[in-house]
Amino acid sequence: MNAGVKKDYLRPLDFKHGRVDMNHGAGGRAAAQLIDELFLRAFDNPALRAGDDGAVMDIPNLPPGHRLVMATDGHVISPLVFPGGDIGCLAVHGTVNDVAMMGAVPFALSASFVLEEGFALAELKRIVESMAAAARDAGVPIVTGDTKVVEKGKGDGVFIATTGLGALPAGRRIGGALARPGDRLLLSGSIGDHGVAVLSQRESLGFEATVTSDTATLHGLVAALLAAVPEGAVHTLRDPTRGGLATTLNEIARQSCVGMRLQEAAIPVHAEVEAACELLGLDPLYIANEGKLVTAVAPEHADAALAALRAHPLGREAACIGRVVDDAQRFVQLATRFGGERIVDWLSGEPLPRIC
Amino acid sequence: MKYVDEFRDGAVAQALAARIAADCQPNRRYAFMEFCGGHTHAIARYGIPALLPPAIRMIHGPGCPVCVLPIGRIDQAIALALRHGAIVATYGDTMRVPASPAAGPPQGGQHPLGGREPQASRGLGESLSMMKAKARGADIRMVYSAADALAIARAQPAREVVFFAIGFETTTPPTALVVKQAAAEGLRNFSVLACHVLTPSAIAHVLESAEVGTLGTVPIEGFVGPAHVSIVIGSKPYEPFAAQHRKPVVISGFEPLDVMQSIWMLVRQVNEGRAEVENQYTRAVTRDGNLAAQRAVAEVFELRESFEWRGLGEVAFSALRLKPEWAAFDAERRFDVGYQAVPDHKQCECGAILRGVKHPRDCKLFGTVCTPENPMGSCMVSSEGACAAHWSYGRFRDIPVVAEAV
Fold first, then answer.
1. Shortest Cα distance from A338 to chain B (angstroms)?
2. Distance between CA B306 and CA B16 in Å, rounded?
3. Which chain A residues are Cβ-neighbours of B406 within 8 angstroms?
4. Which of A43, A69, B170, B204 could form a cystine bridge with A102, CB 3.0-4.6 A?
5. Against a cut of 0.90, is the pTM above it?
6. Between β-strands B320-322 and B301-303, what pairing exists: parallel, antiparallel or unpaired?
């Protein structure tokens, strides 16, 4: 009897030629369509499929006393796609890593998109699919999300904010304030790859580098590390992202009220990264990484920890780069490869090329 | 990196350090100035002071082009962008130099790019910088070369594009070339705010200036001479200076072993009572320099009678401006941007530090209100400045630190 009622029809999104418009953020049918045809399809999981305002999920099975860890990260990057990754996978890696650096096991992510009017749907699809693949590879589903559209000129294509939840086993204490004098500082691999890969894509620089971003999820590496040493041996875990290794070590020194002594010769830097930094007058110690961790480990377990890092594919180039020392001034000092001594200070402002 | 690592070899450095120490005469002190910011940076970054005997003191000179750029020039550049609506293109580390608090649109005036000017910046508020002006709507672009600035002018024929041209003799020839190129192409929207300065006059000023009398005797016994600058101007221009002042000059490359070897050469000159211009950087520097570059500069630029240097004050015949025949490309002639000198903080000791009379730690502002995040004086402005280098790399030497060896 309803033969005269036409079937609800929506012309599918044109992912070849279409562009984001203000309707996609207006909360109406177009917004729902974008969610259905793009985000839900890519991120598919039961919590998201329920289509509610929030995700309901089980907390992974852990003994009593476990706690939740929550971390959030906004991702803005230009260019959106760079050698070795794009803003999509970066948005997953960055937040999964923040959760992992607490010693927690990440189990869920949220994603909030701010899209710029006029952004090509094809490019959005590519980014979302990369994000979905990263979440699948990490084994951490994106269970809830949001989409907003801003007028053309008020965004930079796409911004992605992600929040991650992780489960922290009972009794585990890992944090920036827990490094102690005597601890060994282990770095999981070479520094500066991500920052140089991104810089190399900025057209104004006009140089071609073969460097690819190191962007990766580190929770597997963290699990391998923690499994290799007794609980409590790993005092601090950090991923040296913006501001680079130098800034991360200064943060730890400040939080833990300690100093550090580093050996420059022990810090792995790929030749291409070093060459690019040389050319641009930048210091690899201040360049961003997206797939490296630095850890302060009790000295008696440092060898086992280093061996565990090196046995993992993401830690093959891991090295002991120095040690934590008692220092009320909280200086991070560096014995240079050249045989001299200096401080490695906080990054001051943005790293800018020198003209001389 | 092949051809670079060889100049950073720790074993060679140790050998050189031993020779320097062996040649230092007992009970004698040696104070040398490295003029260039590039040398200051190399000394700080590679930790060279730890390799030198205590008898040798390195004084960081005024050769950091960003540091010596006076506040009034930054004000001009910001005014060009904010008041005249020009695209201002400049080298990266110029972006951070604080301008005077009064820079930007005049009080109560209408912002040329719309009403985005917050109240706080009116009159005496927070100091602007080119980076902060950019956040307030000024169209300021960071470029890696003068040619990039010219490319912007080509691509945006409807906009005025000003290249804020700073630097010593190293960056002057490229500016001369883009001015010539712009003329050849008939570009009418491109001009240059020329703030190029000259090394030999500044080195002489460090020893000769009237302030030296009031600040005390300058204890400098020799100079590590510029690397890149000397590639352009050659070693000849330092000869009258060395003869007149009886001070040795060793032109040095920017790699840490270059610097070590040059210091060794200076120690030997002092010991032997010589005051010669020696060239350590023979792989790049000749006596006459790059004549083609010198010709291009001479064609486009002429001497300014006087130019203000931040930290040094007015220095006679120490900078360049465009010759009258290139007036169409001279931003100072094209736009109404009068120059106004802006003094540094009263307690700033940069003048004495740049002349080697005082050490950064002697300054009351150093490390308290004056840090790289909030530079008050020229020496803190860029990482190559004497105070910034000491703050970022060397201040641990001022404070006894109990440090174990790794």
1. 4
2. 41
3. 261-263, 322-323, 335
4. A69
5. no
6. antiparallel
List of E strands, A231-345: 234-238, 259-263, 294-297, 319-325, 332-335, 341-343
Phi and psi for A355 in degrees, rounded to 5?
-95, -20
Domains of chain B: 5-63+209-284+351-398 (3.40.50.11750), 71-199+289-334 (3.40.50.11740)
* Residue A15: other Cβ atoms inside 10 A: 15
The reply to whether CATH 3.30.200.20 applies to domain A184-343 is: no
The candidate with the shortest Cα–Cα distance to B378, out of B336, B343, B404, is: B343
Q: Which of residues 163-182 of B touch A (CB under 8 A)?
A: 166-168, 170-171
* Surface-to-core class of residue B368, CB atoms within 10 Å of its CB (0-12 exposed, 13-18 middle, 19+ buried): exposed
Q: Give start and end residues of each alpha helix (H) in chain A.
A: 29-34, 41-43, 46-49, 87-100, 121-138, 193-200, 219-228, 244-256, 271-280, 302-311
Q: B65 and A329 in contact by Cβ < 8 A?
A: no
A116 phi, psi to nearest 5 deg: -95, 135
Angle at B160 between CA B77 and CA B73, to 5 degrees: 10
How does pLDDT run across A63-98, given as a tens digit for each residue? 778 889 999 999 999 899 999 999 999 999 999 999
Q: Is B12 exposed, middle or buried (0-12, 13-18, 19+ CB in 10 A)?
A: middle
Six-digit token string for A223: 């699990």
Segments of chain A assigned to CATH 3.30.1330.10? 22-55+65-168
Indicate the DSSP class of residue B110. Answer: P
Nearest CB partner across the interface for B91, out of A204, A325, A355: A355
- List the Cα angle A326/A331/A336 in 5-degree steps: 110
How does DSSP assign B364-396, residue by residue? SSBTTTBBTTB--SHHHHSTTSHHHHIIIIIGG
Alpha-carbon span A347 to B388, nearest angstrom:
12
Residue indicated by tokens 């500066």: A192
Smallest Cβ distance to A274: which of B1, B50, B391?
B1
Residue B95 is predicted with a pLDDT of: 86
Q: How many helices (H) and strands (E) does chain B have?
A: 16, 13
Q: Which of A83-92, A154-163, B57-66 has the lowest mean pLDDT?
A: B57-66
Instruction: Kindly determine whether residue B47 and residue A205, on different chains, have CB atoms separated by under 8 Å.
Output: no
CATH superfamily of A22-55+65-168: PurM-like, N-terminal domain (3.30.1330.10)
Provide ipTM, 2 decimals. Answer: 0.75
Of A334, A339, A354, nearest to B51 by CB-CB distance is A339
Closest by CA to A110, choosing from A143, A136, A75, is A143
> pLDDT digit string (tens) for A14-59?
898 888 988 887 777 788 889 889 999 999 999 888 888 888 887 7
- Return the minimum-mean-pLDDT range out of B131-145, B239-253, B263-277, B292-306: B131-145
Nearest Cα residue to B351 out of B210, B198, B222, B201: B210
Q: How far apart are CA B71 and CA B339, in angstroms?
A: 10
Strands B87-91 and B161-167: parallel
Residue B195 token pair: 């703030």
A78 touches chain B (CB under 8 A): no
Give dist(CA A258, CA A252) in Å, integer.
8
- Give the largest CA-CA distance in chain A: 90
| CB-based burial label for A7 (10 Å; 0-12, 13-18, 19+) | exposed
Rounded-to-integer distance, Cα B242 and Cα B223, Å: 9
Q: List Cα–Cα distances, A115 to A14, A46, A79, A103, B89, in angstroms.
A: 16, 25, 15, 33, 30
